[in-house]
Amino acid sequence: MPVAGIDIGSLTAEVVLMDQGKILHSVILPTGANSKVAAEKAMEEALKAAGFNRSDLEYVVATGYGRVSVDFANKKITEITCHGRGAHYLNPSVRTVIDIGGQDSKVILVNDKGRALDFTMNDKCAAGTGRFLEVMAQALEVELGQLAELSSRAKNAVSISSMCTVFAESEVVSLIAQGLPSEDIARGLHQSIADRTSGMVHRVGLTEPVMITGGVAKNGAVVQALNEKLKTKIIVPPEPQIAGALGAAMLAQEELDGSK
Questions:
Q1: Residue 32 backbone class (left: φ over 0; alpha: ψ -120 to 50; beta: rest)
Q2: Which of 133, 201, 219, 239 has its C-alpha lying 20 to 30 A from 127's C-alpha?
């Protein structure tokens, strides 16, 4: 019978259903204004797609900033632990995990079992996160999904001096008013994220191989800028957003096995 991991982030909620180490199904939905409602909806959608009922679940682990709102979870575990384990499942060779989500970012150093040895986290502001990119895309008047393509057409990178989302937005508006190309501004924004993230990586100590997870991992320009800054080839899993929920599901299986 299945176990589940559920990751309630600031922008999205993810559920992974597993059975004996095999992924059965995964779901990614917007969190919206109510984490509790998002958790219920994501779980029900995952169960329905996999052909199960809530009563079929043997164990549920919740993670993410909204884990406290998941009333049906058997256990709640920090996202640091879950992301490390999820990344290890996706690629057991990984030793450094960069997770850039909607409103926070973290770098986790893991051992050969996927257990966290050290980490650093930016959860005080939205600098360099998905929300940062959303605001910058609006300032540049492009869709969020177009930012990477826009950046790829740049001839130069405009230096962005502020990483604060509010100040950086004002800076971008000013740069546009000066007539600087949107492509060059976009590349500068991606490089500023790489600069900030690489600083976090070096605080825990860069150990290869490196994997990036979270929604921002889907932005190829951020990944490329990090590759260049860290001088390495960063692994991007097929679905980088489910790493936290995947790790939570693995831990749910371990908790279940340990209780038997």
A1: left
A2: 239
Structure tokens at 145: 């999904």
Strands 105-110 and 116-122 come out as antiparallel
- Give the strand order in the sheet containing 12-19: 22-30, 12-19, 3-8, 59-63, 75-76
What's the CATH code of the domain at 107? 3.30.420.40
41, amino acid identity: K
Look at residues 207, 194, 201 and name the one whose alpha carbon lies nearest to residue 94.
207
- Residue 197 and residue 127 in contact, taking contact as beta carbons nearer than 8 Å: no
Task: Give the pair of three-digit tokens for residue 174.
Answer: 């000013």
Q: Quick one: pLDDT at residue 102? A: 87
Q: What is the pLDDT of residues 84-124, one digit of tens each?
A: 999 999 999 999 999 999 888 999 999 999 999 999 998 66
pTM over 0.85: yes
Residues 124 and 184 in one domain: yes
Tell me: do 110 and 232 sit in the same domain.
Answer: yes
Range of the domain at 54: 1-91+241-260
Cβ(16)–Cβ(26) under 8 Å? yes
